[in-house]
Amino acid sequence: MSAQSHTAESRGLAHHFEDFNQQLDASTFGMWLFLITEILFFGGLFAGYALYRSHMPEGFQTASSHLNIFLGGFNTVVLIASSLTMAMAVRSCQLGDNPKTRNFLIATLFLGLVFLGVKVIEYGEKIEHHLVPGPNFDTSIPFAQGQQMFYNFYFAMTGMHALHMIIGSGLLIYFIVRAHQGRYHSNYFGPVEIMGLYWHFVDIVWIFLFPLLYLLGLHLGGH
Amino acid sequence: MSATLTTPPVSTQPPAEHRPTYLNITKTIGSWLLTLDHKRICLLYLLSIALFFSIGGFAAMLVRLELLTPAGDFLTADGYNKAFTLHGIMMVFFFLIPSIPATMGNFLVPIMVGAKDVAFPRLNLMSWYVFMFGSVLAITSVLLGGVDTGWTFYTPYSSTYSNSAVTFAALGAFVAGFSSILTGLNFMVTIHKMRAPGLTWFRLPLFMWAIYSTSVIQILGTPVVAITLVMVALERTLQFGFFDPKLGGDPILFQHLFWFYSHPAVYIMILPALGVISEVISAMSRRKVYGYTFVAMSSVAIAIISFIVWGHHMFTSGQSVYAGMVFSFLTFLVAIPSAIKVFNWLGTMYQGSISFATPMIYALGFLGLFAVGGLTGLFLAAMGTDLHMHDTYFVVAHFHYIMVGGAVMGFYAGLHYWWPKITGRAYPEFLGQVAGTLMFFGFNFTFFPQFLVGYLGMPRRYHAYPAEMQVFNILSSVGASILAIAYILPAIYLAWSFFYGKRVGDNPWEAKGLEWEIPSPPPTENFLKPVVVTEEPYTYTKEAH
Amino acid sequence: MAQQHGNGHSVQHHVAPVIHYVGVWLLLMLLTGLTVAVATVDFGGSLNTVVALAVAGVKATAVIWIFMEVRHAQPLTKLSVITGIFFLVILLVFTFGDYFGRSTTFTPLEEGWRSDGPHSVGTVPELEPKPAHAPAKGPAKH
Q1: B289: domain range?
Q2: What's the whole-number average pLDDT of chain A?
Q3: Which positions ≥6 away from B68 have C-beta within 8 Å?
């Protein structure tokens, strides 16, 4: 680091890094390593899903066709849009434009909350129809065991995904405040960039969850 | 014997009392609990895992007391289940997995790469808090009546048929796993991105290669067991029947997901010890490590191969016999990098000027015990033999030779080797040698009889056994008492020497490496001047002693 | 580069034009529509799943490549992504290797596992009375 360390130029650089390049490199690589752990975290659920689905296809398809494709599709669109606003927020931050960064982050947060709101409606429907696995599960439905197993994974996967969304939304609020305070500049945008990586990853998980959970039974006639 | 630490040479440095070190720069409790200094975090971990090691050791004592007599008279069957489960959970998740990486790794990774700190100091402190939170959950489960599933949480013991506080223990392991992930992530980034100028990959000390390989496993494996434990917790609390056959689930899926992490986790425990041994043997023999590249690459190879062998835990569980054959074959591959290491260490010592100082006594003990543990692993990797040995004391003895004979001996070797650097003080050398020797003999007394009694068919995890097996169990319990003394003794003299030990110089072993070029104990920023590395590690000349 | 920095400590980064991001967004919307559309067609067998996963894979790749800027990332980042996916594949392949290699077959009934042999994982230990809502064995009558 150059001699004039606490100047405006070096605002945001931690003391143990040589320069912004090293800091950005390190935090980006750290985030990618974290995302690897996330791949394998969700991977355990995907493995279980694939195994049980191959053994109970009828139950899985029947249960899937009762999910609300409209709401699922709507949420997919919402989440993809939030990825776009997130990417734009990162871009603005790279250019050092704090107000624009803040506005795009607010848009991302808004879309994330819409997603979670829709999820609440969907969960409410399942509870109403006794489709939550456990003692209250309606076992009079056809292929009850396979359906119940499907809903195990439906709730575990979408629940874990929603948990990530909630954590992400909390983080977004923090970054909105920071951008509002004008903390970032064209050398110091790393935190927003790695926030973006996280958000896009959560989007990718949903990209796989949507066809695997919602669209299984569609070709059999659906509802 | 040329065993003792050298006295401080006339140094240009002021003595440690009069200069700022990481130990004396601030004195408040708060400055320790909120420290971002990797060296202080090392000591926080050291204290915590010492506590958990004691709890696990206490549970082991209960187990050995029960097994003194054939009848199940000291503990109930249920109490015995809880004792060995507590032993396993504490030792695996709260001692062995964090042991070397979180203590010596934390202290040495930044120093060995020539950096001021790890890449993410706040995350490092957070890992410790996360770890402590996990331990609180695990200990809560003990206070709620204990867990009786074994440390593996196998379904349906942990789901359908357990009435104990499994959810808390599983969540404890889950949370501790996060700490492990964060530590591994931190080290990987540090080694990749924070190396000093001139410090190329093949100039890194072998301990760094070992820690790097360990971190790879922590990052790739731990999340799978995390989600698996979440699934068990969901099954217990909300009755999601992931692994319940009555609800269409398959308990063996649990075993697949569990061992995908937990077999590599064995290497999380042993790989750092392998790294420590490379450092110690080289320094104590005054020789460059023989076949540096092979030793470094064998760490990476072990990390990768560890992910494709997990099925050897499941030969008798109903796994496909074809899958078993593949897993059996792949398991044998682990022997290759392990043997490369052992032979290269022997090659390092050959014609060396060997000192029998305490770290070397532990390292030599390690070599013997690791070899026995590794070779008996081959018996168990063969499917046919394993059918006979599975779930007997032979398995218990095998993995204790690796985890205790290997990882714990390595832990003590490293602790004694770097203790003068960590504290700036010498431990009592004679007591160190006594403890190291006792540990080796006590260990063999404890666990060698278990190979025999296991081969005779004594199953693990029962509190009663046939009378003709008593002699082995008495030997084992007596050995365990010796082992207990060998563990308590260093705890006492190391704690004493932390405050009252004789001051030592910056490089009491006259060893090579960046950590020996800085003051003992180091200043907060580690290096007083910028680091540039210009040569390979281990440039020993044999004549130094 | 959209920006040039004067001093030597500035970060070398690539600011992509907006059109790239909007383009990917459009592509993702299109593929979302496509994945719903193809799901209504019966390709037979497990081909529907393959198609659905392929489309999802393309979408994920687009997000990783453009939104997450892996296209401009260092080789190390690319290696990380591949490593993560590779070890997920190991998990899936070896786990499924077991299930497909077992000597007993797992003919799915409506109600879970069935075994044709004595070594089945599906044999339920009768240690507890069966709960009424989940019959343990045999085909259920609907």
Answers
A1: 38-244+251-531
A2: 88
A3: B74, B473, B474, B477
